[in-house]
Specification:
By secondary structure, the protein is an alpha/beta fold. Strands 3-2-1-4-5 form a 5-stranded parallel sheet, sandwiched between helices. It starts with a strand and ends in a 5-residue tail after the last strand.
């Protein structure tokens, strides 16, 4: 095992994911490839669903500022904050200080697809990523990158669970 791909999303599970990947890389003399996918704004499909009120759910009726069709403008990336940019650099430096080769990748596009494409391009031996406990509505509107990776991965995926909330 020489290449470990580690998707980064700034959630509460990210630090444990990085820590586990760092331990594995150190033990196996592997390199880490951090990947932070720059997401696109919500798709036309999601905007269209909001316009129609989603199956009799009036609380999801359109609100001021929701785009009409989503087709009249090019998709934009969701901007990163300065704190997110500095956090990426900090994680990369921490891994390097542990004596592990680390590379940062920041593609733009659908998250699961970009993770899988990067895994193929690198010929990654393992993907180490977080598992989140989002609800059904989140999955309906946004989907789950973890689920997408698990369904379509052609290489091992190690999931790290987020902290359980009471």
């Amino acid at each position: 095992m020489k290449r470990i791909l580690v998707p980064i999303d700034f959630s509460d599970v990210t630090p444990p994911v990085i820590n586990l990947a760092r331990q594995l890389a150190k033990a196996l003399d592997a390199e880490i490839h951090l990947i932070h996918v720059k997401e696109l704004t919500p798709t036309a499909f999601a905007a269209g669903m909001l316009e129609s009120g989603l199956a009799g759910m009036p609380e999801l009726e359109p609100v001021s500022g929701v785009p009409g069709s989503g087709f009249d403008s090019m998709p934009q990336t969701i901007p990163e904050s300065d704190s997110q940019k500095s956090q990426l650099v900090q994680w990369q430096q921490e891994i390097e200080q542990a004596g592990i080769k680390v590379t940062m990748h920041q593609p733009t596009g659908p998250v699961a697809e970009e993770i899988l494409d990067q895994a193929d391009a690198l010929n990654a031996d393992l993907i180490v990523m977080g598992r989140h406990g989002h609800g059904a509505m989140y999955h309906l509107l946004v989907g789950s990158a973890t689920e997408g990776v698990l369904k379509h991965a052609t290489r091992p995926v190690l999931l790290v669970s987020g902290s359980k909330r009471s």
